[in-house]
Amino acid sequence: xxxxxxxxxxxxxxxxxxxxxxxxxxxxxxxxxxxxxxxxxxxxxxxxxxxxxxxxxxxxxxxxxxxxxxxxxxxxxxxxxxxxxxxxxxxxxxxxxxxxxxxxxxxxxxxxxxxxxxxxxxxxxxxxxxxxxxxxxxxxxxxxxxxxxxxxxxxxxxxxxxxxxxxxxxxxxxxxxxxxxxxxxxxxxxxxxxxxxxxxxxxxxxxxxxxxxxxxxxxxxxxxxxxxxxxxxxxxxxxxxxxxxxxxxxxxxxxxxxxxxxxxxxxxxxxxxxxxxxxxxxxxxxxxxxxxxxxxxxxxxxxxxxxxxxxxxxxxxxxxxxxxxxxxxxxxxxxxxxxxxxxxxxxxxxxxxxxxxxxxxxxxxxxxxxxxxxxxxxxxxxxxxxxxxxxxxxxxxxxxxxxxxxxxxxxxxxxxxxxxxxxxxxxxxxxxxxxxxxxxxxxxxxxxxxxxxxxxxxxxxxxxxxxxxxxxxxxxxxxxxxxxxxxxxxxxxxxxxxxxxxxxxxxxxxxxxxxx
Length: 516
Prior knowledge:
- There is one protein chain.
- It contains 21 helices and 18 strands.
- It has helices at residues 16-26, 50-61, 76-90, 109-114, 119-122, 128-131, 135-144, 190-199, 216-229, 245-255, 273-281, 299-302, 318-330, 356-361, 367-373, 390-404, 414-422, 428-442, 470-488, 492-499, 503-512, and strands spanning 3-10, 31-37, 40-46, 66-72, 94-98, 104-107, 148-156, 162-174, 179-189, 235-238, 263-267, 307-311, 332-333, 342-343, 347-352, 376-379, 411-412, 449-450.
- The strands form five sheets. Strands 6-5-9-8-7 form a five-stranded antiparallel β-sheet. It has a five-stranded parallel β-sheet with strand order 11-12-15-10-16.
- Strand 7 (148-156) and strand 8 form a beta hairpin.
- The termini are far apart.
């Protein structure tokens, strides 16, 4: 059926809309759709023959206050609908619109391809018919008015197969009625998520397959981590500095149900104590002098739907340990200077290089927080206890850095390998990486083999026969002093006070000597 749409520009006169409608009624013309806004009336009708069309235009033009009459392609709302339909039709995520009763009102093209029920059978049906036990997340979103992100959903197909998806729920809020009017569900299938993860892997995503190892000790750690990655239990990683705790945390995140969300690493020792609370939990506007005008999200909120990695958690002051315990138990945070409870949905992985149980016994770490975090402990072995991994790691790093240096393949001589295998590696894999990087860049360009590796030897620190300069001797001595202070003191902050330097100055020295 052909239609005609009129745009009628008018003065702002009481009753003018009634007069315009009267012209259509007098000519027995049915109005299909109509829209009114200040100074404009839009009317859609079935197309008329030319004589009737001209007569109608003439009669409307005689109405007092009518300025102009044009024929336009479609009503303003139809233009917006076409734009919205184009947008919804081109996005790759599936979208489902629900009303207040959680009945399906609309789905986009991507969602129709993912769902097992045809659209003509789905419209108007309760979501519970499709979602089953997963409807609780949807109800929670509608009642609380707070978005619920990245929840696993399993849908049963007619063939008996199941479809694995991840769903996020967003409330539709009416500002005028001050209530939630429905929900938009955004769904992604697992293949989409896998493709997305692969596309951003270069920005820091890690799989267990990326962890270079040969030893049984590391194989056992990886097997345990894989087994618990897909559950939501808190994982606690133990290990000396440089054993790869963050690498493990990233691999666990990649394998988890939170893989589509962000991975947010936090070094609790690297953030000044005065800023820790506001960095972790965020703050409201005006919470303190210098606070951002609109407030700021904390790292917990930034990790919503993903994983928060709390490295060096033993360095948290006791008063923040209490707030962390509350956040973990209540699954909610409160910003500094605010009283609003903000629900959090994330995975927590904690790590330390200290003996946390001893710290609990000494009263330096809260026992209740220890038992709340210490659900699944994984102890990463130091490099000196898995020396069978050294040749593999050394070759891996040599290949990486020779490519960065733009030089041909570079093998390790038996002499270089002997030096690597007999070193005790106090800095673990981080130190090994540092040694290989230094050795590759110092190797002559014509060399095809690393004949020696440049390892910093502690024996040269105090009166040795080796010919080293004053700078090297002073750095070796400083390294010993820093290592002893870290071993003697209860935290990095206490070690800094003991040495009479600032916290940040000590952190720079710790990173410099591979002791962080």
